[in-house]
Amino acid sequence: MKLLKPILSIAFSFLLISCFSFSKKEENETLIKTYKPNKNTKVAYFASGCFWCVEAIFESVAGVEEAVSGYAGGETKNPTYQSIGTGKTGHAETVAVYYNPKEVSFETLVTVFFGSHNPTTKNGQHPDYGTQYRSIAFYQTEKEKKIIEDKIAKLNKEVYDGKIVTEVTQHSKFYEAEEYHQDFEKRNPNQGYVKAVSIPRLNKFKKKFPELLKEKN
C-alpha cells in the first residue's frame, strides 16, 4: 500500500498535464470564426504531438495565415477526440497549416516542424505518448516528399545520428477537430496543460527561430 500511493499520485499528476486529460467544461466559450483560405493559399500537414502545441507554433510563423487542428494518418472515418485517444484509429493529432507561399516556403515549414519537436521519439512527445502523438510529415507532391526526405537525411547526419523516426506519409484525408480544440492555447492560457507544456514549448521555439516569427511575436 505504501508503494501504491506514490504510484497513483504520479499517475494522477501525469493526467493533469496530459493533452488527453482535457475536459470540455474547461474551455473558453469564445466563438471561433470559420477560416476561409484565399485562392493563393497553400496547405501543409504536420503531426508532432499534442495539436494544441503544434497549432500555436505554426501560427507564430510569418507567412502562415492559419493553423487548424485535426486528425490524419489513419483509415478510420470521421474520428473524434475521444476515439483517437484510444490509439486504435491509426490517426495522429495533426495540424493543417495554411500559408502564403510568397511569404514562407514549404521547406521553411519543414524546418519549423523538425525544429519544434523531438523527431527521435517513437509514438509521442513528452508528456503525451501513444500512436496518436507520433511524428508525421505529410507530403502532397513528389517535390514536397523530396524536401522532407532531404531534411531528414541532413538532420540524421548532422544532429540525430540516424535516429529520426518521423513518418513520411502521402496526405490523403484530413478531419478537422472539434471546434473547442481550435486556437486552444490562445483561448485557454490558464489551463493546466497549456501552462505546463504548450506555452513553454512555444517559447522554446520562438527563442530558437526568432527570424521566422511574425512581428507581433
Structural class: alpha+beta
Distance between the termini: 50 Å
- Which architecture name does CATH use? 2-Layer Sandwich
Number of domain units: 1
Output the CATH class name: Alpha Beta
Largest sheet: 6 strands, mixed
What is the 3D shape?
globular
CATH topology group: Peptide Methionine Sulfoxide Reductase, Chain A
Taking all Cα atoms into account, the compactness measure Rg is: 17 Å
Q: Averaged pLDDT, please?
A: 89
Low-confidence stretches: 1-16, 25-33
What is the CATH homologous superfamily assignment?
Answer: Peptide methionine sulphoxide reductase MsrA
Total of helices: 7
Structure explained in plain terms:
The chain has one domain: 2-Layer Sandwich (Peptide Methionine Sulfoxide Reductase, Chain A). Helices cover 34% and strands 18% of the residues. Strand 6, helix 5 and strand 7 form a beta-alpha-beta unit. Helix 2 packs parallel to helix 7 and helix 4 (106-115) runs parallel beside helix 5. The chain is built from 7 helices and 8 strands. The strands form 2 sheets. Strands 7-6-1-3-2-8 form a 6-stranded mixed β-sheet. It has helices at 4-16, 51-59, 81-84, 106-115, 142-158, 184-187, 192-208; strands spanning 42-48, 64-72, 92-99, 124-125, 128-129, 135-139, 167-170, 175-176. The protein is α+β, with helices and mostly antiparallel strands and 217 residues long. The active site is at residue 50. It catalyses: L-methionyl-[protein] + [thioredoxin]-disulfide + H2O = L-methionyl-(S)-S-oxide-[protein] + [thioredoxin]-dithiol; [thioredoxin]-disulfide + L-methionine + H2O = L-methionine (S)-S-oxide + [thioredoxin]-dithiol. This is Peptide methionine sulfoxide reductase MsrA. GO terms for molecular function: L-methionine:thioredoxin-disulfide S-oxidoreductase activity; peptide-methionine (S)-S-oxide reductase activity. Its EC number is 1.8.4.11.
